[in-house]
Amino acid sequence: MNMKGQETRDFQSEVKQLLHLMIHSLYSNKEIFLRELVSNASDAADKLRFLALSNPKLYEHDKELHVRISINKSNRSIKISDNGIGMSRQEVIDNIGTIARSGTKSFIEKINSNNYQDELIGQFGVGFYSAFIVAEKVSLRTRLAGKSLDEGVLWESNGEGNYIISDVKKFDRGTDITLYLRKEEDDFLDIWNIRRIISKYSDHIALPIEVEIKDKDSNITKWEKINKAQALWIRNKSEITNDEYNEFYKHITNDFKDPLIWSHNRVEGKQDYTSLLYIPAHAPFDMWNREHKGGIKLYVKRVFIMDNAKEFLPNYLRFVRGLIDSSDLPLNVSREILQDSRITKNLCMALSKRVLQMLETLSKNNTEKYKIFWKEFGLILKEGPAEDNSNIETIAKLLRFTSTKNNTSDETISLSDYVNRMVEGQEKIYFITADSYTAAKSSPNLEIFHKKNIEVLLLSDRIDEWMMSYLNKFNDKTFQSVSKLDNSLNKLLDKEIKEQKQIEEKLEPFVKRVKKILINRVKEVRLTHRLTNTPAMVTTDANEMTTQMAKLLSAAGKELPEVKYIFEINPNHPLVKRISDIEDENNFKDWIELLLEQSLLAECGTLEDPNKFVCRMNKLLLM
């Protein structure tokens, strides 16, 4: 039997494509549909509230706006109702039959022209189709506020190629959406599941969301509010206590410790968003994995969109927890859209600066808490110079090191500390990378620096060599590895260089003998004034790859050219003086080989043939 004004209309081709995606692949999380429909209902209420400012009659007989959810197990349906603005027949056709226009989008354009700061949620006409994720049939009954009771509209579809629309009588303004669920979707007929979903996705929508409760004995129906209706992050910061911030952190992270620090900010202008970001007090067990499911929660106008949204912070800040609530992103945003969105990129830049400012504040105002942060997350922050060149100066200030001025491996020294202690005439920031703190601290490369009281940073984490390749300057001071040749020391070693000239002339025949033995084995043989207690060492040229970088790339499976070392000999060492007087070429060769192997062992931590080294050493000991 046909109803008044009934007609069957085909969906726009884009709608058919969207419906197919909705039903088959777009949403992997089916419960999303309830979030979408509740958000649309909230949107309709906000529209009515705004329009009623100039036309109070739109409220008709009911000013109390709400969203109501009822379940009918007998016909396996769930109904979401609102008493918001509603729609006319033409609006239903325009806003649900097509995607090219959106009721909400048109409304926002209109009120933005009047400079109205709206609080609208969602884009009706897109999220609506998510109903077909769980429903085999959807029925929509609506009436535009202020219209007669006979101007209601009934819309029905099974989500295929067309829909039926007709005129009906509707006593209450607003929209009722009834979903007739598929057989496998019985979970959504459970009132406790509905409560859980609303709590998860829509708890902070500023509109009462109520569920229908029937008393079994009296059969009386009542409506029970199930959402809090206000988000903590939209409240005024001055009204929120530290305990509330801490409890909210624990709620969203399931952490049992209070965070070290947080930052709560509302930004308006080119971008409109609120962020609430926390720095945890300890790292989760999988934090060192760069595939760690870190990230922050994403809300769009107070509606929860997704967990672990990594797109809003670079990977080196993956320890940050919290949320961002954007007014610029669409409610139906996907991870693919986030990755390509200009808005997302701008938000990522802004949030990165916010986190780094938070860490700067912590490092200046609470050094003990910053020590906790560095111990837990320092290794991750060290990825920053390679990943975020735009903030590299700020990141450099936050880095911590141990050095030759320390008696412990604890990394507590900042680059500012180092620069403030630089000796007169020192041009560069010196550092050494090694496999361990002990190896770095005992390296023969440090001997002249100890003598001149020049501080050297000791770096022993695997990532350090990679990090230092991206750190070029700090406070206009360049970085210099002490295991590489560099002329910056010459000014500091002017006295030693002058004293060495006479010795070098005397030992020139000795150096020629060594070069003849080590030809093609080393890049160069030279006397050095940088050693005090060690007979010899190996270094690399300024343009050569360092030992630690070679190890790092080798561990990553890269094929590398052989590192050619410079063999530096200390002419003042008693052992070198003794060797230089040896006339027997075989004996001389063994001693030179031993010195080279010792130097390589000190630099690399291993030898290509350790047994040959041991045999050679034993042989010379017995002579």
TrEMBL record:
Annotated region C: the residues are 552-623
Q: Where is this region: B?
A: 336-551
Q: Which domain of life is it from?
A: Bacteria
> What keywords does the record list, in alphabetical order?
ATP-binding, Chaperone, Cytoplasm, Nucleotide-binding, Stress response
Q: Which residues bind ATP?
A: 36, 40, 82, 87, 95, 102-103, 123-128, 175, 335
Q: What range(s) does the Histidine kinase/HSP90-like ATPase domain occupy?
A: 29-185
A Pfam family it matches? HSP90
What residue spans carry the region label A?
1-335
Output the InterPro entries linked to this UniProt entry. HATPase_C_sf, HATPase_dom, Heat_shock_protein_90_CS, HSP90_C, Hsp90_fam, Hsp90_N, Ribosomal_Su5_D2-typ_SF
Q: What subcellular locations does the record give?
A: Cytoplasm
| Molecular function terms from GO | ATP binding; ATP hydrolysis activity; ATP-dependent protein folding chaperone; unfolded protein binding
Record-linked PANTHER family: HEAT SHOCK PROTEIN 90 FAMILY MEMBER
Purpose: Molecular chaperone. Has ATPase activity.
Q: What quaternary arrangement does the UniProt entry report?
A: Homodimer.
Task: Cite the NCBIfam families for this sequence.
Answer: PRK05218.1 (NF003555)
What name goes with this protein? Chaperone protein HtpG
Tell me the organism: Candidatus Pantoea edessiphila
